[in-house]
Design goal:
Radius of gyration of chain A: 13 Å
Number of strands of chain B: 11
Oligomer: heterodimer
Largest interface: A-B, 27 and 22 residues
Shape of chain B: globular
Low-confidence stretches of chain A: none
Radius of gyration of chain B: 13 Å
Distance between the termini of chain A: 35 Å
Strand content of chain A: 35-45%
Order of helices and strands of chain A: EEEEEEEEE
Mean pLDDT of chain A: 97
Helix content of chain A: under 10%
Distance between the termini of chain B: 40 Å
Number of helices of chain A: 0
Shape of chain A: globular
């Protein structure tokens, strides 16, 4: 199972919006709504930010939102803040009942 | 209080095996699946597999077939992940995390265990 494809890096100024894409296939992202997103700061465990494509866990800022179209899922961060600078990973359930992570995206706040 | 507490760092020689533990709260052990995810230095996250603690059912990523084993001890609410035939490419931080059945979300994570494979 190949990793889902994410851009290596995305940057934006404070207050701007950025979007991170996550491209897979009909066997994972396109076939299920089981897509979630994780934020990881250096030397920390990942943190769940979005699940089931669009749902936000309790305690996660509403500046984070998710969507999906075909085989590509997206995470949008609006009102970018310095604390949002981190690595972001998508993951999807697959047709062989496993999970696959994305390649990861480093978000830089300029 | 929910917790996933992992065992400490390990240093192993190539060809050896390593066993990492993940102690869960009784509630998590009974009601959630446990997954293992690893991250090589400077690299991304990689899903390794999952175990259902109440039934011992396991599912592994194809990359690890044959040298990965997940077990559990119901008396201590602990899950174990065993990787054999280690190479330098297995040097990574190994995380355990939980998923409520069919929720497809990893909502709580262990602190991570660094495994270094070196001669």
């Amino acid at each position: 199972q190949s990793a889902l494809t994410q851009p290596a890096s995305v940057s934006g100024s404070p207050g701007q919006s950025i979007t991170i894409s996550c491209t897979g296939s009909s066997s994972d992202v396109g076939g299920y709504n089981h897509v979630s997103w994780y934020q990881q700061h250096p030397d920390k465990a990942p943190k769940l930010m979005i699940y089931e494509v669009t749902n936000r866990p309790s305690g996660v800022s509403n500046r984070f939102s998710g969507s999906k179209s075909g085989n590509t899922a997206s995470l949008t961060i609006s009102g970018l803040q310095a604390e949002d600078e981190a690595d972001y990973y998508c993951t999807s359930f697959t047709s062989i009942h496993t999970y696959v992570f994305g390649t990861g995206t480093k978000v830089t706040v300029l | 209080q929910e917790h996933l507490v992992q065992s400490g760092a390990e240093v192993k020689e190539p060809g050896a095996s390593v066993k990492v533990s993940c102690k869960a709260s009784p509630y998590t052990f009974t009601n959630y699946y446990i997954h293992w995810v690893r991250q090589a230095p400077g690299q991304g996250l990689e899903w390794m597999g999952t175990i259902r603690p109440t039934t011992s059912y396991t599912k592994y990523a194809q990359n690890f077939q044959g040298r990965l084993s997940m077990t559990r001890d119901t008396s201590t609410s602990t899950v174990y992940m065993d990787v054999s035939s280690l190479t330098s490419e297995d040097t990574a931080v190994y995380f355990c995390t939980r998923e409520c059945p069919a929720c497809a979300k990893f909502d709580f994570w262990g602190q991570g265990t660094l495994v270094t494979v070196s001669s």
